[in-house]
């Protein structure tokens, strides 16, 4: 039976309450207070955006609904611009000056018209559905020269061309710049910090200047963007390069080595465990992630939007599913190898289904997981606040992880289970067990005797660091800057996760991890502006409890039958 039976005493409960207070004061109230003050508007659903786009092209482009073969809806966000506004605390200024006509976040609806190459992409304001930009995708990658003539006359003509689809020409002034992307115009509105708003208009090659009405949209584009200071753009480029290198050399390559080691130790320590260990959790991880991948196809598409390379939804799906299959295998061998390692060192951190007290252990782990999650949330809040004040850390947007890029946003809480299962089995159960085995073995060889209890504690503490560092490096690709912000945060958090596993067992720390993520996701859902997501956020909070109770009852029922 599991040797982790120490219940939570009042000190833990009071610490959890204090952690919850810190989390609410530091992370929740400032955001929700701003949201309520700003009177957040309803955000269109993906289906509403699609219907709005079809109505818009009928009105402004003369395209009938029956001529549309296919549509895609993708939430696109200008990550660098949102990062700039966040870093220099200019978001409120942006909201007042630019957000209505030039939002940083839009729904891009691609309409594939029968008989026409490429797609017509409409950029819609996510709150009111207003058309703010559009482009013929086929023309953007192979732009052809527009009508010839005097540049100033053509620049005026281009602005009139943009006006036919709703652009307010009074707000723009030609900069004198013409490129393959078209004519560039500067906004007459006041700048936000050092950021300057620009409009670009690409005239179709077939445009008839003498025509009183403008010809087809094919080959044309009306888009906008923000010119950010060169020093900030250079900073972001450097940060992204660091994030990519750290992800490859600090996470992906070590993960491959960890995979090989997990297979080896699963085999060499099979006498202490069973190869049935972790099968259910690994399969659950893959099934959940596979379903979420289908749910997040627009998010995968958003990831390649800025590069202009559309590899297709099917390729994105295959690459993602293969990756998650490999992660599921790593999770499985980590479960077997980790359980075997700890039992070989005299610790049983994971009860088995066949044990009489398994259901009660799950119920206790779920209950303890909530309290530990509150402690983790409080610690995370304090760490992030300290990093913000000391490093000037800030966050940018990431459309690949957006709620608005989910076909079914209410499925978001399932992602918490994927993270909790895989990361705790890999980084904590196997990772800490592996390095503890190595460190204790090295100490035994150096001293020629078994390490003392105090030495073993020190070595176990050191064993938390390498897998914690690897786990942290797996998160540096998130849109948080400087990139080492998350590195520092998660290395510190890994000590708490590791301590909790050693004291309460792996099931408790999985529930704690899942609950932590479920609460953060629930808060996100409650205030994302989508209909029904407030209730979905509340459901996210209680889902770990529901799962724990179901497993407890199921185990009891099956044991009674047997």
Kindly describe this structure.
It is built from 16 helices and 10 strands. It is of the alpha+beta class and 562 residues long. About 2% of the residues have low confidence. The radius of gyration is 27 Å and the shape is elongated. The strands form 2 sheets. An 8-stranded antiparallel sheet has the order 1-2-3-4-8-7-6-5. 59% of the residues lie in helices and 11% in strands. The longest helix is centred in the middle third of the chain and has 39 residues. It has 2 domains: 185 residues, no CATH class; 324 residues, no CATH class.
Please tag this protein with its features.
eight-stranded antiparallel β-sheet, 2 domains, 10 strands, alpha+beta, 562 residues, two-stranded antiparallel sheet
Distance between the termini: 19 Å
Low-confidence stretches: 35-39, 139-144
Looking at how many chains there are and whether they match, the oligomeric state comes to single chain
Mean pLDDT: 90
What is the number of beta strands? Answer: 10
